[in-house]
Write a structure and sequence with these properties.
Elements (H helix, E strand, L loop, with lengths): L1 H19 L9 E3 L2 E3 L4 E2 L13 E5 L6 E4 L8 E7 L4 E6 L12 H4 L6 E2 L4 E7 L12 H4 L6 E5 L17 E7 L11 H6 L2 E4 L7 H6 L3 E5 L2 E5 L2
Parallel strand pairs: 3-4
Antiparallel strand pairs: 1-2, 4-5, 5-6, 6-7, 7-12, 8-12, 9-10, 9-11, 13-14
The structure holds 2-acetamido-2-deoxy-beta-D-glucopyranose (NAG) (4 copies).
Length: 235
């Protein structure tokens, strides 16, 4: 919900900078690190918001180290990193970033993406963390308590994102839990590599194309969104 409040503010700030700062009005393709950014995404500070969906606005953090793009409009700053966009398959790989030193998120990924027009792909697996209860020793994660407010945290991976939303029987029903989609890791050992697994991100399906952006690009036009309807601005 907070996201709804943040978005108009972000848009206002953007249009204010655009009018005062001589910002560009073009939707020419941009990049952030290896990531190519174009319709239906836009790059904050480099492209006007009409270059993509407002929810697909990205912020590029250029340093130190490798430049990384983040979804601009989330309830916490730099919550989701955008790692890979495939314009051909209409998908992207995103990952949870910056969770205050604790690798266990304190939110459900599906809830925090609910207002975005993405679908969490059913090809992901479900990685579930549970805590604030008696954690069976075989599910305990080593090293985590130190990082996460001295909590004992347990985890398991279920086969597919689309199934297994309820805790398995050997886990007390009064545990709190959060679920993270992940791309790999069915073998038990992968629980030991949870940080890596989470950092590798998860697959999101983008909404069906609103218009023929490929066709528009072929004639060197520029794809835009005007009040959520597709426009090819030519040429
Ligand atoms: C991005 O996805 C493409 C196509 O699936 C793949 O070839 C490439 O290695 C990926 N890049 C990264 C950084 O994951
Ligand atoms: C963390 O929890 C353990 C066991 O509950 C306790 O022995 C230890 O003192 C706690 N450490 C801190 C820093 O609170
Ligand atoms: C959770 O349930 C167990 C019994 O199943 C009980 O012993 C424990 O106190 C409960 N924990 C909390 C935090 O309610
Ligand atoms: C995450 O989702 C599960 C299942 O829908 C729910 O039981 C749990 O309370 C949620 N956790 C948080 C922190 O919102």
């Amino acid at each position: 919900m907070l996201w709804l409040l943040l978005l108009p503010l972000a848009s206002l700030l953007r249009s204010a900078t655009a009018t005062s700062g001589g910002g560009t009005t073009s939707c020419t393709q941009e990049s952030c690190g290896n990531l190519i950014i174009r319709f239906p995404f836009s790059l904050a500070g480099a492209q006007p918001l009409y270059c993509g969906y407002p929810q697909f606005d990205l912020t590029c953090d250029t340093g130190p180290g490798r430049a990384q793009a983040y979804l601009s409009n989330t309830f916490r700053e730099r919550l989701f990193r955008a790692d890979n966009i495939s314009y051909a398959s209409n998908t992207m790989v995103a990952a949870i970033a910056g969770n205050g030193g604790c690798p266990v998120p304190d939110f459900n990924v599906s809830g925090s993406l609910a207002l975005f027009p993405f679908t969490i792909s059913a090809a992901n697996k479900r990685f579930v963390f549970f805590y604030d209860c008696h954690v069976p020793p075989e599910h305990r994660l080593p090293l985590l308590p130190r990082l996460c407010g001295n909590r004992t945290v347990g985890a398991y991976i279920s086969g597919r994102w689309g199934e297994g939303d309820t805790l398995p029987r050997d886990i007390p029903a009064n545990c709190s839990s959060v679920s993270v989609p992940v791309r790999g890791g069915m073998e038990p050992a992968s629980l030991l590599y949870y940080e890596r697994l989470i950092d590798d991100g998860f697959l999101l399906e983008l909404p069906a194309p609103l218009g023929d952006c490929d066709g528009c690009r072929r004639v060197r036009g520029e794809c835009r969104l005007d009040l959520l309807s597709f426009q090819c601005v030519c040429c």
